[in-house]
Write a structure and sequence with these properties.
elongated, 431 residues, alpha/beta, 13 helices, six-stranded parallel sheet
Length: 431
């Protein structure tokens, strides 16, 4: 959700909300298994990502710890395995592009629900008017990068199995509140949730529950009545370390450290990268070839990329180059990068696999930076994969990370920084 979309409409019915419970085994009828099984209600994840954020321009696709912000919650939603469809509602071309790269479907919202005054309920209602197949909406906030699939799985069960009409996320806080005094008014402040004469210790006080905005799940009929919270209603309590909300620029470096420590990085454990393989044309270079009067090939590269390569080597990460074109080795050697390379390669996957076996590595320990159709299989196999900003669409879809920099314009340095960030996560997990 954008900052202008964080306050959901609430209904008057109030229930006694229980805490989120661990997931049960799904009943066969709910899964559509067996004779006469019920049809599984269509649960759709919907991330609202308006382009006109006031706090941080296009913050929903700004990179956080090497991944577009919206990519963190999309990864959690995909790996939760509880949604029949996953959507991003946006009014912006760049956000649409990133959302599709991250595997989401896109609903182009109208200008009527893209204003600063528009609410999340407005955008959700419009989305439902185009999707009659959807029975339940899981409205997930784009700015909650520490969301984990298990939270979404438990909430989905509360809706599908326990019959709740709406479930929303909360976090427990131990904060004492006092009444506000208006300027120029001669009054004294009063305690709102404590007795100052008997201040409780943290361990003796349960604290209070606050909405953290990470998600709001609701059944269709409730939303059509004009509510996101209501009916048979419950909260789901998230862990405090997973309750991260990015609203202003100053939060960004703090959030990045939180994500590296507590974020969800995928189903499989991260491995330390030992080998980076980089395509030459379009990654190390910008793909342009200049020919001198003596018919000698001339290429250009970015000094930032050579710095990135040297930083990787100093971190004991082997860097090797590959190309399907028969480049001039003499020209490449003049770059003085001192890297092993193979040129004129039609099957890049076979060469990289040979290098991997030669070094005794698993694919999770290999990173690959490519930009062409011929790089697709390597990008899919590698434990960490990236492409420059101007890579072809097939390569972009196969990669886990799309650089902001173009090929030959700092993409290798940027990808190196991405590797270093994820290695911090690996090291923190090991500790």
């Amino acid at each position: 959700m954008d900052s202008s979309e964080k306050t959901p409409a609430t209904s008057s019915p109030r229930g006694r909300p229980p805490r989120g419970r661990p997931p049960k085994l799904q009943r066969n009828a709910r899964n559509g298994v067996g004779k006469g099984a019920e049809k599984t209600p269509h649960m759709a994840a919907l991330i609202l990502a308006r382009g006109g954020s006031k706090g941080i321009p296009l913050k929903n696709i700004k990179h956080l710890a090497g991944v577009p912000l919206i990519g963190w919650v999309l990864r959690a939603a995909q790996d939760a395995g509880v949604f029949q469809s996953i959507w991003v509602s946006t009014d912006h071309d760049e956000i649409e592009k990133v959302a599709k790269q991250c595997g989401a479907q896109v609903h182009r919202r109208s200008s009527e629900v893209s204003k600063d005054s528009s609410t999340s309920l407005d955008a959700i209602t419009e989305f439902l008017s185009y999707h009659n197949e959807v029975d339940i909406i899981g409205n997930i906030q784009a700015t909650s990068p520490c969301l984990h699939p298990v939270d979404l799985q438990k909430v989905a069960e509360m809706i599908r199995e326990d019959g709740y009409d709406s479930v929303f996320s909360v976090v427990r806080r131990h904060q004492f509140r006092w009444s506000e005094i208006q300027k120029g008014v001669s009054e004294v402040t009063e305690p709102l949730n404590l007795n100052p004469a008997k201040r409780p210790r943290r361990q003796d006080w349960d604290g209070e529950l606050y909405e953290n905005g990470s998600f709001y799940f609701a059944k269709r009929h409730l939303i059509e009545m004009g509510y996101l919270q209501g009916g048979k209603m419950a909260y789901y309590e998230m862990r405090a370390e997973h309750s991260v909300d990015i609203d202003v620029d100053i939060d960004w470096p703090i959030a990045e450290q939180r994500v590296l420590r507590y974020g969800y990085f995928g189903k499989e454990k991260l491995k330390e990268i030992k080998l980076l393989v980089c395509n030459i044309d379009g990654c190390l270079t910008n793909g342009h070839i200049y020919v001198s009067g003596n018919q000698e090939e001339i290429i250009s590269y970015d000094v930032r990329d050579s710095i990135g390569i040297n930083l990787l080597k100093k971190s004991d990460i082997e860097v090797r180059l590959i190309s399907e074109r028969s480049c001039s080795k003499q020209t490449l050697s003049s770059l003085k990068l001192d890297l092993r390379m193979e040129i004129g390669i039609s099957n890049k996957l076979a060469v990289v696999d040979e290098w991997r076996k030669e070094m005794g590595l698993c694919w999770k320990e290999v990173a690959y930076l490519g930009n062409e159709v011929s790089d697709e299989e390597c990008l899919k196999k590698a434990g960490m994969s990236g492409v420059p900003a101007d890579a072809c669409s097939i390569a972009q879809k196969a990669a886990g990370y799309v650089c902001k920099s173009s090929g030959g314009r700092g993409a290798i340095r940027e990808f190196a920084e991405h590797i270093f960030l994820l290695m911090e996560k690996v090291n923190s997990c090991q500790k």
